[in-house]
Amino acid sequence: MFGRAKRTPITFDKTGKIPVIRASICTGERTAGFRDEATGRFTEVMLIRTDADFQEFLRTYGVSGEEVRREW
């Protein structure tokens, strides 16, 4: 009941998208997603609470850690 819900990955074409971790300077909350290179629009895919969440993001979406940009 109070456990973590199983995440269903969002499926979309990653062509022209940049993997990004957005972090709040005030709260430290981190959100993983993809930024469209053409429009600059950010699409949020999951909340990152722990390093395990970050590793899950990398594994689920087939992204390497070196590709991920960090934004504040």
Alpha-beta content class: alpha+beta
**Beta-strand segment tally:** 4
Our Rg estimate from Cα atoms comes to 12 Å
Shape category: globular
Give the strand line-up of the largest sheet. 3-2-1-4
Which band does the percent of strand residues land in?
25-35%
Poorly predicted tracts of residues? none
Number of domains: 1
Number of helices: 1
User: What is the H/E string?
Assistant: EEEHE
Largest sheet: 4 strands, mixed
Helical percentage: 10-25%
The whole-number mean of residue pLDDT values reads: 86
End-to-end C-alpha gap = 34 Å
Describe the structure.
15% of the residues lie in helices and 33% in strands. It is of the alpha+beta class and 72 residues long. The chain has one domain. Strands 3-2-1-4 form a four-stranded mixed beta sheet. The longest helix is centred in the last third of the chain and has 11 residues.
Précis, in short:
With 72 residues, the protein is of the alpha+beta class. The chain contains 1 helix and 4 strands; from the N terminus they run E-E-E-H-E.
